[in-house]
Amino acid sequence: MRALAWLQMVTGCLAMSFAIGVSAADDIVVGQVAPLSGVLAETGKEMVLGAKVYFDYINDNGGVHGRKIRHVVKDDGYKVDETVRLTKEAIGKDGAVALIGFAGTGNIAELLKQNVLQGAGIALVAPYTGGEVLRTPFNPNIFHIRAGYADEAEGIVNQLISLNMKRIAVMYQDDPFGKAGLAGVEAALKKRHLELAATGAYEKNTDNVSDAVQAIAKANPQAVVMISVGKSTAAFSKRIREVSTVAQLVNISVVNPKEIVRLIGAENARGVGIAQVMPYPFLPIIPIVKEYQQAMKKYAPGAEYSYTSFEEFIGAKVLVEGLKRTGKNVTRQGVIHALETLSEYDVGGFTLRFSPDNRVGSRFVEVTVIGRDGRLLR
Q: Where is the signal peptide, in residue numbers (predicted)?
């Protein structure tokens, strides 16, 4: 039932993007290209959901200066060429004034390589990636609300070292995303005069981790940092424990713990650590979590809370604040300038900081663990 509900919701988003047309010429168009199919589909659907829920809330409360937000959603299947094609379509055919919540370091890097964002002078807010190549050198078009993979790697390595685990290996996706995370772990270890115990790579858009399992098992490390997405993380976690005595597995933030538990069961997933770059979304301790949970109950009843949807909910709130500050005449360049003014933007217990020369709004990192019942523990 839940899978059907997801499909209906996403199908509705896609249908809406084509059905409104000229009658909604005064709408503010926000484009989102996300992986709604393929290995990252569950993550992509939650990304879309988080943004959609916030936009629905804004539209129900008068929109932005009286104008509705039209959320145009397109499925790239996590494929680089599709990301490029569909982004051009969202900018050109659909007339998006801003973009939100894309996934994939390599996918977004290709947009920069082909001058898609710069050429259109358009902002991309809250991409679901921490790749340093998208942050350095400075790129004025991308507004990051999450810490980078280097920040995550530093936090993970620091925690492992505090547990006296110094023989650390890395399993990574063989693409810019995975290599960015690998570089982050290497840098964090070098800072502590340590070296990697082993590395193992797997091909993007597959869950064939056999070579990675074999390479890392030979080294018998104390811990493995995984720079991978859901299906490959699940496959590796199960298999490495079957053939080695590795004590701790930790993944960077771009995985969905529910998917891991679904794929390999709670017992096999138990104890897997996951870095997080957003506040804990399951308890309404701070105002933004309460706001998120209330919106989810109203606009996505029955959907479970998650870090992924919460992140894009915050991303949508940041973008809407930028749209509000732009004024009634919304332009792409105006949105960029408005977002730059969010120098101390408190979304509700979580503060983001942007400026004309800073696009990394947060460096917050904490590590959670999948518990015996499959739920995340802090």
A: 1-24
Structural contact between residues 32 and 101, judged by C-beta atoms closer than 8 angstroms: yes
Mean pLDDT of 111-116: 98
Q: Which amino acid is located at 330 in the chain?
A: V
Which candidate, 227, 226, 237, places its Cα nearest to that of 260? 237
Angle between helices 307-326 and 41-60 (to 10 degrees): 40
Structural domains counted in the chain: 2
Range of the domain at 12: 2-146+283-352
Q: Are residues 124 and 246 in the same domain?
A: no
Rounded to the nearest 10 degrees, the angle between the axes of helix 210-219 and helix 230-243 is 40
Q: Domain with 295 in it: what CATH number? A: 3.40.50.2300
Question: Is residue 233 included in any domain, yes or no?
Answer: yes
In a domain, 289, yes or no: yes
Beta strands per DSSP E along the chain: 28-34, 69-75, 98-100, 123-125, 142-143, 168-173, 198-202, 223-227, 248-251, 273-276, 345-346, 351-352, 366-370, 376-377
Contact between 348 and 279 (Cβ < 8 Å)? no
Average pLDDT value for the chain: 93
